[in-house]
Amino acid sequence: MLIAYDPIFAHPLPEGHRFPMAKYELIPEQLLREGVVKEDMFHKPQPVSEETILLTHTPEYWNKLKNLQLSEKEVRRIGLPQSAALVMRERVICQGTIDCALYALENGSIGLNVAGGTHHAFADRGEGFCLMNDFAIAANYLLHHQLVRNMMIIDLDVHQGNGTAAIFEEHEKVFTFSMHGEHNYPFHKETSAWDIGLPDGTTDDEYLNKLASCLAFLMVRKRPEFIFYLSGVDILSTDRYGRMKVTEEGCRCRDVLVLNNIKKYGIPCAVAMGGGYSPQLRHIVNAHCNTFKTAAAIF
């Protein structure tokens, strides 16, 4: 098992900013303290190359990002301050997801990025705390280098992966599956290959039963050569924005369900953590750590 992590993931934001950057530092610390992983499992990615970025994002958008020329409106849409450090952070995160995917392919196993899951970034713009789309960049990298013929993105963040859906709309080699809050952000949904919108207040049993039936269909009918799994923990009942009633145990069972299916069919997998906005940081960190614990137990 490979874990992509760099201290840059916990890059500080201005005082009082809503985005919980501290979780990226606390997740590795807790995993090591509990003996779930060892130091040699951690991998420090390099920044992704411009050539690889441009397989997914438009030259115009990339030039704005790297030269810090986003308009005030574009910065507001992203929700993060414009800075060279945050652009570099995003580049490292994206390469981390690529490295996880390459490790999983080479070893028939799994790689997990402590960050990532930046699924609200479109080819030509960012939004929702996402500057660049790491899953899309990694998927296009694999396709460009002819490492896989087809793949699937399983997006279980509470928010629809609208940027990912738009990038791969009608793309026959990348099947996008998003199960999310129907009435949650983004309020204008893009079209994934398969969207499941859940009502506010969805409970553990409702969530897991729906997911189990979807996975049974997807694994048999689609048979992807590779899977990207976005394991957002903003489905938790404690989440500030999630609107779901899924417990921490229910969230853990979701990971067990997904990763057991992936293992059963022998599909290499790269995982990114996605969102989590519970007021108490321990709820976020515990739920994310459960994803790593589940992966370690299954793979």
Overview of the molecule:
InterPro entries: HDAC_classIV (IPR044150), HDACs (IPR000286), His_deacetylse_dom (IPR023801), His_deacetylse_dom_sf (IPR037138), Ureohydrolase_dom_sf (IPR023696). One of its GO terms (molecular function) is histone deacetylase activity. This protein has 299 residues and is an alpha/beta fold. It has one domain: 3-Layer(aba) Sandwich (Arginase, Chain A), CATH 3.40.800. 41% of the residues lie in helices and 12% in strands. Strands 2-1-3-8-7-4-5-6 form an 8-stranded parallel sheet, covered by helices on one side. α9 links the parallel β7 and β8. The longest helix has 24 residues.
At a glance:
Residues 17-289 form the Histone deacetylase domain. With 299 residues, the chain is of the alpha/beta class.
**CATH class label:** Alpha Beta
In the CATH classification, which architecture applies?
Answer: 3-Layer(aba) Sandwich
Major sheet summary line: 8 strands, parallel
> What letter string, H or E per element, gives the SSE order?
EHEHHHHEHEHEEHEHEH
Q: What is the fourth-level CATH superfamily? A: Histone deacetylase domain
Alpha-beta content class: alpha/beta
Strand order of the largest sheet: 2-1-3-8-7-4-5-6
CATH domain topology: Arginase, Chain A
Helix count, DSSP H or I runs of 4 or more residues: 10
* Termini gap: 7 Å
What's the Cα radius of gyration? 17 Å
Beta-strand residue fraction: 5-15%
Could you name the ranges where pLDDT drops below 50 across 5 or more consecutive residues? none
Using the alpha-carbon principal axes, give the shape.
globular
In helices, the fraction of residues equals: 40-55%
Total number of domains? 1
- Give the strand tally: 8
Mean pLDDT: 96
Family: Belongs to the histone deacetylase family.
GO molecular function: histone deacetylase activity; hydrolase activity
Organism: Chitinophaga sancti
Pfam family, one: Hist_deacetyl
